[in-house]
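hiii so um. not sure if this is the right channel but i have a protein structure encoded as tokens and i wanna go backwards to a sequence. like what aa goes where. can anyone help
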């Protein structure tokens, strides 16, 4: 069983920055592709970005490309999401997810999820 705990959410003005963290309990963390998803009120959960277990390659949703950066520290078993130039439409609950040895941009393919952290961007 993998436990994921997100932190770093909050309220920020448009144009500001936040850094989310997701700490994993699993010892084989380096074997997991780690993804970030978000869900705004009344909307479906949507893919944001993932970082692969294979060499750390990344894949971003077009809506965040150039503004968000994902990174991972396998020694700390933590994945980060640096969010810059935030917009009101980025407001959502952000979820960290893990999938072993596979790279997917689809929520249904992820086996483990964190509890989510709220990000609110005011205009």
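sure thing!! here u go:
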């Amino acid at each position: 069983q993998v436990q994921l705990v997100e932190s770093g959410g909050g309220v920020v003005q448009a144009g500001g920055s936040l850094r989310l963290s997701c700490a994993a309990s699993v010892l084989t963390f380096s074997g997991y592709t780690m993804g970030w998803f978000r869900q705004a009120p009344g909307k479906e959960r949507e893919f944001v970005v993932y970082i692969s277990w294979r060499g750390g390659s990344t894949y971003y949703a077009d809506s965040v490309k150039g503004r968000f950066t994902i990174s991972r520290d396998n020694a700390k078993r933590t994945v980060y999401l640096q969010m810059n130039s935030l917009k009101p439409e980025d407001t959502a609950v952000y979820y960290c997810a893990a999938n072993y040895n596979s790279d997917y941009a689809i929520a249904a393919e992820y086996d483990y999820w964190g509890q989510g952290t709220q990000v609110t961007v005011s205009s």
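oh and The chain is about 0% helix and 50% strand.
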